[in-house]
Structures are given as structure tokens and as C-alpha cells.
Amino acid sequence: MKMWVIYKSPSDYPGSWVVREHDVPGGPRQDCDVCTSLNEARKLVPFGLIRIDRFPSDPPQLVETWM
Asked: Biggest alpha carbon distance in the chain?
């Protein structure tokens, strides 16, 4: 299973929006896409996925997850 996670200003890309593909189980892949806006980041998420809101326990940089 795969999921895509959108982050705002993670420590490795401060000031940017980042989309990372994650393998479940397994974790994030090495590569990522760096964007300048949330809308730009959302355009990189494959069509047909469902957005999952963040949980209170998620890191503050995590904006949303798509599965």
C-alpha cells in the first residue's frame, strides 16, 4: 500500500511544501517533490485518493495524508 504525505516547511526543506510517497509498511521513500504552495503540492497527489486529516499526535509539519 502507498500513501502520499504533504508537509509544510519540514526541517530538510524549510519554507517549502513537500510531498513524500510512503510505503506502508516501510516508511517514506528517499525522493520527494518540493513545491511553493499547498495547491501545487496537491496537484502531485495521484487522482482518486482520499484525504486524511492530520491527527493531534502528528508532527506539526504534517499537513495531510492521501491514501
From this structure: 29
Cα 63 to Cα 33: distance, rounded to the nearest angstrom: 15
**Residue 32: φ, ψ to 5°:** -155, 165
Using the structure block, give the residue that is written with the C-alpha cell 492530520. Answer: 54
- The pTM assigned to this predicted structure is 0.89
Cell of 4: 502520499
Domain spans of the chain, in order of start? 2-19+31-66
Q: What are the backbone dihedrals phi and psi of residue 47, each rounded to the nearest 5 degrees, phi first?
A: -60, 145
Q: pLDDT by residue (tens digit) across 22-48?
A: 888 877 777 899 999 999 999 999 999
